[in-house]
Amino acid sequence: MDFKNEFSWSKSRDGVFCECKRKYYFNHYGFWDGWKADAPQRVRELYILKNLSTRQIWIGQVVHDIIKYYLIKLKSGEDVTSSHLIFRLGKRLKEDFECSEAGIYKKFPKKCGLVEHEYKMLISKDEWDELFKYAEECIMNFYNSDSLKEIKKEDISRWLFLEEFLSFDFEGTKVYLSIDFAIKDGDNQVILYDWKTGKERDVEMDVQLACYALYVLQKWNLSPDKIIIKKFNVALDKVDEFKVTTQIIEDIKSYMRKSIKDMKDTLKDKESNIAEEGNFSKTSNVKSCLRCNFKKICEIV
Q1: Which residues are registered as beta bridge partners of 229?
Q2: d(CA 61, CA 68)
Q3: How far apart are CA 8 and CA 167, in angstroms?
């Protein structure tokens, strides 16, 4: 069965487009059909590279997965210990790291693959150990947090585990997003939780969070003042709370319209979502190039 590459929008897709148009092409068009056994060599390689993560993104994803595991256990009535969470975290990190280091992702691209291993970057054992310690601190910060205490006080029937890949229609374009956790209380108010693992604290309402609010408005037909967003940086143990306003909703709609238009304007055929590599320019930002998972392909173009 052949899958059709249909146009869609997400905050991550928008981020790649803003970072580098050529990377955007590789990430959303050039890799297509790379999973097939008879895929051309270059297409197959783009598919492999597309699935790589940097060590920072990987750590963030694993921390998110452990937090989700813990909350699901809580909802089922099992309050697992912090030591169990740290054990599970360590086991996952070890398995992922060894899988990537062994290059298993080259044969099975959906397995963990890290940019650092693909490009043989000189990352010392101390640096890796520090990264794993950082992940442990994130989990312990969450486990001991006031946010978790607040969540536990709510009736578990109001806990919402939203699907891994949510989507909604925005003016004819499918939009994808992934919300970490939510609670819908007795006053028909929705509290959205977003876990962050970065070393820097962003205290602003960003595009991603505004997009979450827009989704919730559509799903439950709420007014903006019924939505509260809590951004919890588990690395820094800091929470920033935002109230959604009509202006925030209008601003995100305008942002998305422009982003979608800019993306479609680069296409060879907008109706069929067909792209041509030459229409996607390379970034001039050297720092972006150095950490890009596609650089081995891009350098020979």
Answers
A1: 192, 242
A2: 11
A3: 10
Q: pLDDT per residue over 82-102, tens digit each? A: 999 999 999 999 999 999 999
* 115 and 291 Cβ atoms separated by less than 8 Å: yes
- Examine the fold and report which residue of 118, 144, 170 is the final residue of a domain before the chain moves on: 144
CA angle centred on 29, ends 23 and 31, rounded to 5°: 85
Number of domains in the chain: 2
Total length of the chain: 301
In a domain, 6, yes or no: no
Give the pLDDT confidence of 116-147 residue by residue, as tens digits: 999 999 999 999 999 999 999 999 999 999 99
What is the token pair recorded at 22?
């050529």
Which residue range forms the structural domain that includes residue 43? 29-144
Orientation of helix 146-153 relative to helix 125-143, angle to 10°: 40
> Using an 8 Å Cβ cutoff, are 67 and 148 in contact?
no
- E strand spans, the chain: 8-9, 159-160, 166-170, 173-177, 181-184, 190-196, 227-233, 238-243
Does the pTM of the predicted model rise above 0.85? yes
